[in-house]
Each structure stands twice: as structure tokens, then as C-alpha cells.
Amino acid sequence: MKLYNTNRKRLAEAIFASSSPADDAEVARKTHDGSESLHSGTMMVTITINEIMAALKQLPKKSSPGPDSVSVEALRSIPLKVLTVLLNLWLLHSVVPSSFKECITILIPKGPQANKPEDHRPITIGSVFCGLFSKIINHRLRPCVRLNDRQKGFMPTVDGCGENGLQSFGRQSFGRQVVWPTGRLADRSYGRQIVWPTGRLADW
Asked: With contact defined as beta carbons under 8 Å apart, do 196 and 168 qualify?
């Protein structure tokens, strides 16, 4: 504190000339090939072509373009090296240009008499570039972040609508035997485990 008030040049020399534990630390690898899960300490390694190829396969083939008018088909025609440079600039600078973050919101009527705001379902369409970038980041975050067990939406292995339907059906049919469309017999009164037609196990 004394040097800070009297001679900041000497203070800077003392700080940068001294040894630091970080100098001896192992240097983190600079790329991630997707063969193993990332942890929170390696989230900022550069995005690879393999990661981009995997994320491109997850994008729907038929998807409306965002404000930039770039479709998924057009995105896939861009050389992978160009996409790699672009996405790594976003990642390493921690900045996505505002023009790529613009979205279009479309209000879809829920019925023929849709006169109020609550009678519409909003759907937001963004840039496919951001969609690609988000899928890569999401894939890296998934092993690091544990979501609540009640999270059903936007989960790749969860049939949220099916589970909600099963629970609702179970409440309405308490104590009665019912037959699923698959021909399985389910007895609500026994509290046994059954298999939902999607293959998920449900505990009644």
C-alpha cells in the first residue's frame, strides 16, 4: 500500500518480477475433440470442426430463417473452417455481435376467436448462427450443470408432454384398470411400475 501511494512504477516492477504459482501451472490444452466431457475449467477451449459438424447434424433441416435471412441449408454450405473462425471469435472475445442476436417474434392464434394477447402463442425465430453456437455451448455445459429433476422442457431424453399426460391420466383413472393403446394392462390401484408407450418407466 505504501508503494502504491509513493512509487507505482516500483510497485509494478515488484509485482511482475516476483514468482507466481501460475507460472508453474500445467498449461490447459487448447482444443477439445469431443471425445470426453468438459469441466468448468476448460469451457473456453477453442471450438473444433468436429464440434461444429456434430451441432450441424442436430439442427432441423426445415427451419425458418431469422432476421438475417440465412437458412439452415445455407449455413451448411458455408466452409467449416469459416464457421470455426467465426464461432471461436465469439467464444474467445465473449461477445456475440448484436446483429446476430436479433430475433423475429410471430404470434400464432390459438383458435379462430383470437382477439386478445393471451389468445396467441408467441414463437421467436433467431439466427441459425446463434442456434449453432448455442448447441455447442449447451453440449459443453451439460456435463457441468445439473438441472432440477422437474425440468422437462428442452431435454433431449425426456418426453415432457407424455409424462404430463400420464400423470393426468393416472389421476383421472385412480383405482381402475385401463388398457394402453399398446395393449398393456395398467392397474392404477396396485401402485406398480408400468412402461409408458414411449419406453420411459413410470412409477404410479
From this structure: no
List the chain domain ranges. Answer: 28-99+127-146, 158-204
CB 123 within 8 A of CB 105: yes
**Residue-level pLDDT, tens digit, the chain, 204 residues:** 565 567 767 766 766 666 655 544 444 444 555 555 555 556 788 999 999 999 999 998 888 899 999 999 999 999 999 999 999 999 999 899 999 999 999 889 988 888 888 888 899 999 999 999 999 998 888 777 777 777 777 676 666 677 767 777 666 665 555 555 555 554 444 444 445 555 555 444
Dist. CA 65–CA 130, nearest whole Å? 11
CA gap 42, 1 in Å, rounded: 35
CB 32 within 8 A of CB 52: no
**For the chain, what is the largest distance between any 2 Cα atoms, rounded to a whole number of angstroms?**
86
Please report the sign of the dihedral spanned by the C-alpha atoms of residue 83, residue 84, residue 86, residue 90.
Answer: positive
Give the three-class secondary structure for 116. Answer: coil
87 contacts: CB under 8 Å, gap ≥ 6:
47, 52, 132, 133, 136
CB 146 within 8 A of CB 61: no
Name the one residue in this structure whose C-alpha cell is 385412480: 174
- 141: its cell numbers: 455445459
Pairing of strands 177-179, 185-187: antiparallel
- What is the pTM for the complete model shown? 0.58
